[in-house]
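The protein record filed here.
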Amino acid sequence: MLSIPLVYDTSSLCDTGCMPELPEVETVRVGLQSLLPGRVVSAVDFDWPKGFPNNSQDVQAFLVGASVVEVRRRAKVLLIELSTKYTLVIHLKMTGQLVFRSDNQRFGAGHPNASLIGGLPDKTTRVTLTFADGSRLYFNDQRKFGWMRLIPTAEVPQIDFFKKVGPEPLAADFTWQVMKGRMVRRKNSNSKAVLLDQSVIAGVGNIYADESLWGAKIHPTTLVRNLTEDDFKNLHRALVDVLNVSISKGGSTDQHYVDAEGKPGKYLTFANVFRREGLPCPRCGTIIEKTRVAGRGTHTCPVCQTPII
């Protein structure tokens, strides 16, 4: 049995925000990429039109009978590319879950209130893709905010979100100079707010903003215009490092994130400041503080990250 665990629970309002961040969605992509390519869609069932807002004729012509070519990601959105030159564009939103089942394989990624181990489909199942070999991909969504759209592949870059979203922070061409160029467009905003802006950099959320700013010794309230060239270099390095570490650990799987067997994930056991308020800073020993910056719970070391007044 193949089990690639990532199950995130965003059912409670929390400082992580209520959506997965880039490493979580990348972990989903890696899992699906190992399972779906080459499988042929033989049937599609759905019970929530807003979660599957597609023309029935297009579904029959371009989805049913198509084989999966590749699973990609852009920012926090999954892209399942098909042999018909169409793409399933999937946004899990707050409570979306993808579950793959075959006779000898299982993959679960998403909100754990939907069943990974029990019977599927269940009351949260919005879309079921059945493949020619009998395996299935279930799209479950308790709160019904997520969606799965069938779009011509050539038109995907023209979706409004994709036209506005910033560069991928793990792309080879995302240099510190590129990051600086994006951030200084909002030079009068604080550093954390700019990191959280998806039009500046794709996929960075609250956890990775806090962790990368700590790694670069930058206070979250520091205005972008006050960052030095060394600050940008350090912030770029810290952001890339923390995203890669999180992906290697399967995402930010803390108490709100459990794997397919219900066990806690690992990343936040390696976090340096996030949710460590009241504990000593790993770098200098000063007690970590929690405040509110850019409307989000924010974790800093008051010595390592001195505010610029």
The domain at 2-164 is CATH 3.20.190.10 (N-terminal domain of MutM-like DNA repair proteins). The first strand starts at residue 2 and ends at 8. The mean pLDDT is 85. Helices lie at 22-33, 56-63, 160-164, 176-183, 191-196, 206-215, 229-248.
